[in-house]
Amino acid sequence: MAQSKEDPFLDDVEQAEEEEQAAMTEEDAPESVEDQIESLRAERDAFQDKFMRALADAENARKRAQRERTEAENYGGSKLARDVLPVYDNLKRAVETVTDEQRKEAAALIEGVELTMRELVNVFSKHGIQVIDPQVGDKFDPKQHEAMFEAPVPGTKVGEIIQVSAQGFMLYDRILRPAQVGVSSFTG
Q1: What is the CA angle 44-48-53, rounded to 5?
Q2: Count of domains observed in the chain
Q3: Which helix (H) or strand (E) holds 109?
Q4: 151, 184 Cβ separation under 8 angstroms
Q5: Residue 31: which domain range?
Q6: Per-residue DSSP letter, 24
Q7: CA distance 102 to 111
Q8: Least enclosed by CB within 10 Å: which of 4, 103, 129, 146?
Q9: Angle, to 10 degrees, between the axis of helix 78-97 and the axis of helix 107-126?
Q10: Which residue, 127, 147, 166, sits at the end of a domain?
Q11: Are residues 58 and 81 in the same domain?
């Protein structure tokens, strides 16, 4: 059943719409549009803020991953390096204890030990390991040295290295093993 144009219900709806439009003044219409624009701007700003925060979080995660990857590359082998240091120490002791007579008798063997030690130092250098080689008379540095003992030695100053027991090692900017030293406690 089609409704005719003279349907009272449709006439009431149309009349209500006309009254509503007539009730709106020219000032009312822009306010509602301005309110809508302001609402959209606030929503846009909120989305932009969320986007910028997400972008910053992603950048921070990228930097953190890069830093962790670099640390893993540089310091991942530190346990192995620490375990190899006694090999270096033993080779160094072996070379240092050889007398001139022993050097003449077993020249090839001693030369082989020295070559092995040099190659080990080259491998250390290739992987960022540097020797900390304090000398007697140097100032004690607790960041690089470990005091094994203190002794009052005349002619020295307090905190001066008086003996080097073992060299230390750094892996890039981190201590693998501090140099083991004796320190003067002489105050005279």
Answers
A1: 150
A2: 3
A3: helix 107-126
A4: yes
A5: 27-75
A6: S
A7: 12
A8: 4
A9: 150
A10: 127
A11: no
Residue 99 and residue 65 share a domain: no
The residue whose two tokens read 């693998």 is: 176
Residue 175: the pLDDT is 94
d(CA 171, CA 90): 20
How does DSSP classify residue 187?
A: -
Q: What is the full DSSP assignment across 29-78?
A: HHHHHHHHHHHHHHHHHHHHHHHHHHHHHHHHHHHHHHHHHHHHHHHTTH
Domain contains 6: no
pLDDT value, residue 122:
94
According to DSSP, residue 2 is labeled P
What is the distance between the alpha carbons of residues 57 and 161, in angstroms, rounded to a whole number?
49
Say if residue 53 is in the same domain as residue 92. no
Residue 14's pLDDT is: 72
pLDDT value of residue 31: 67
Strand pairing report for 179-184 and 145-151: parallel
For the chain, residues with pLDDT lower than 50 are 1-4, 26-27
Helix (H) or strand (E) holding 166: strand 161-166
Asked if residue 143 and residue 116 are part of one domain, the reply reads: no
∠149-155-160 over CA atoms, to 5°? 40
In a domain, 140, yes or no: yes
Three-state secondary structure readout of 69-94: HHHHHHHCCHHHHHHHHHHHHHHHHH
* Residue 116 counted as domain residue: yes
